[in-house]
Write a structure and sequence with these properties.
Elements: H1 13-18, E1 47-51, H2 55-66, H3 71-83, E2 104-111, E3 116-124, H4 129-139, E4 144-146, H5 147-156, H6 167-179, E5 208-213, E6 219-225, E7 246-249, E8 253-259, H7 261-267, H8 269-278, H9 283-298, E9 318-324, E10 329-335, E11 339-343, E12 348-352, E13 354-357
Parallel strand pairs: 3-4, 10-13
Antiparallel strand pairs: 1-5, 1-11, 2-3, 2-6, 5-6, 7-8, 8-9, 9-10, 11-12
Helix pairs in contact: 2-3, 8-9
Length: 359
């Protein structure tokens, strides 16, 4: 039995439409298509949409949905592949640790037909937080469990404690510690330069989000992450926050995100993407309009956060992925070029994201 987690009316449609938003110069906008009214879903539409690191997830989710598996179980099984992969250092096993060298994971799930949701945050020693999040949804009256409480809950349901810090992640963490300051008691780094495969992962805020719809029109989504690398212990990003890192409304669509979680938490961004789709915008338009609103708000955030340049333009990475109930989908990024994964029922592959700003 799925427990309903009531949707909060924390954004008013009129206020959203009436608010002034920051509009990037015309040459810097992409994907200005006409709005698409939300209506009945065409029969037979099956889709799986994910962040770029989710090609295996979309492929697995599609395979399972074709076998009759519920979309939520399908997307969770899909992201489990990434959670189990030590070479993806932003999710699950092998994820980069917090500043103390401990891997802490966050995840959320949401089921469209019932609006049920579940999440865990800052959970340690459990490889698949997405599966624990589903248990929170299915077996409790709560929406979110954190820290040691989330760990105890997982252990009570048969999960096994594991050391999630791989040798590769430990090497990157030690390099980070040795190069943070010349005023501490650490000697200069023993390894002057990290191996090439570790260079891109010194600082990450990667995540995997996966959304799906089946032939019956059932929408579901999951977001899972190891969070910002070398974060303060106990830091929680947007991934386990319903309405920030994930939101699903079966009458409209689903949305999720990857990137700097604090920006999403401050703006309830995934909820906003779904609301914009409900007002008739296409998934691409909804993602871009949400990015515009975030860019406008970022200009007012304290400069000490380091999230904008001298002109007030966002310097942080942020991506959205959206899927409406008609099976239309999109990905969009704040700045530059990015890709996302889609299985459209015929082919699984990467597609270009729309972008708000040129690089």
């Amino acid at each position: 039995m799925r427990v309903r987690c009531s949707r909060r009316d924390f954004l008013l449609t009129g206020a959203v439409l009436g608010a002034a938003t920051f509009i990037a110069p015309r040459e810097e906008l992409r994907g200005q298509t006409t709005g698409t009214a939300v209506g009945p879903k065409p029969a037979g539409v099956v889709r799986a949409v994910s962040s770029a690191n989710g090609l295996r997830a979309t492929d697995r989710a599609m395979e399972l949905m074709r076998q009759g598996t519920d979309p939520l179980d399908a997307v969770i099984a899909g992201v489990n592949i990434v959670e189990d992969d030590p070479n993806d250092m932003s999710v699950g096993y092998g994820g980069l640790p917090n500043e103390d060298g401990i891997v802490e994971l966050d995840a959320s799930v949401m089921y469209g037909p019932t609006a049920a949701s579940g999440a865990v945050a800052a959970i340690r020693n459990i490889k698949n937080p997405s599966r624990v999040a589903k248990l929170v949804m299915d077996r409790t009256k709560h929406c979110l469990l954190v820290g040691n409480g989330a760990l105890k809950f997982a252990l009570a349901h048969g999960f096994k404690k594991e050391n999630l810090l791989t040798d590769k992640a430990r090497e990157a963490w030690l390099k980070w510690k040795e190069t943070m300051s010349d005023q501490d008691n650490w000697l200069p780094a023993q390894i002057k330069k990290l191996p090439e495969d570790l260079q891109p992962v010194m600082m990450t805020h990667g995540t995997i989000n996966c959304l799906a719809i089946n032939e019956a029109g059932v929408l579901a989504g999951v977001t899972t992450t190891s969070g910002l690398s070398y974060k303060l212990a106990g830091r929680v990003g947007d991934s386990p926050i319903i309405g920030a890192g994930l939101y699903v409304d079966n009458e409209i669509g689903a949305a999720g995100s990857t990137g700097v979680g604090e920006a999403n938490i401050r703006t309830c961004a995934s909820f906003q993407v779904v609301e914009f789709m409900g007002q008739g915008l296409s998934p691409e338009q909804a993602c871009l309009k949400t990015l515009e609103r975030i860019a406008d708000k970022a200009r007012r955030w304290p400069k000490s956060l380091g999230l904008t340049d001298a002109g007030g333009r966002p310097t942080f990475g942020l991506n959205f992925y959206a899927l409406n109930r008609k099976g239309e989908f999109a990905g969009a990024t704040m700045t530059g070029r990015s890709t996302y994964a889609v299985h459209d029922g015929q082919k699984n592959g990467l597609r270009d994201c729309a972008f708000l700003f040129k690089a």
